[in-house]
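Note to self: keep these together.
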Amino acid sequence: MIHAAAGSAHRFIQSSVSSDAPLTLFCDFDGPIVDVSERYYQTYQLGLAEIKSVYQRQGIAPRLNELTKERFWQMKQERTPDVEIAMRSGLRGHQIEQFLDRVKQIVNQPKLLHQDQIQPGVKWALALLHSQGVRLVLVTLRQQNQAAQILREHELESLFSQIWGTQDEDVAYLNQSEHKIRLLQTAMSHCAPTAAWMVGDTEADILAGQASSIPTIALTCGIRSRTYLQKFQPTRIHADLLSAAHFLTDSAQHSAQTVA
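Structure:
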């Protein structure tokens, strides 16, 4: 069942984890679950190639400097502005605006979306959390249908009790914190968790969790570096979702043993 609310869509999915689960984990999609680095880099390459082609047809030969994937991703992880990435690639003046507009247009094209890959260890992480009674709620700025389809293809959709996403395909690429804050608050109002964490790979996820007064886990496997994430003072920093899952389940078991 899909409903529209405040520019967002969400889906409720039947799950074996009860609604009064002792812990709810609100989990981001791009970064923690899906590796988008290849799609972003290919988008960058295509954008450069198209701008070069446009100017060559006009008899102009721009002197471009295509970044390696390693350098490009490092700049994205350090939150380097896209304008600076364009300039470092040799673009100047109106070329930069044309490049940025083109990247925004093509980043969500189906042929590029297929470049996304499930992060290593994610299936183990989600299965572990679900087996321990953790209620999993996806909160993503990705289009809701896109996220649900990818989870379905990898037989992961049924592990989530709810999926919250957007209707606008451009929101995820822009990754504005205020959008994530509102989306998480809406999800929390429907879940009413007794205890909860927010896990994600960007400042938007950390700020959203903090705005809702829940602890946060920042992951370094996505589009932000550990150094950058530390500036926002998340509760914890982990390398990936599997590491975070082990921490959460071990903490829950320890708490249960202490109470007993």
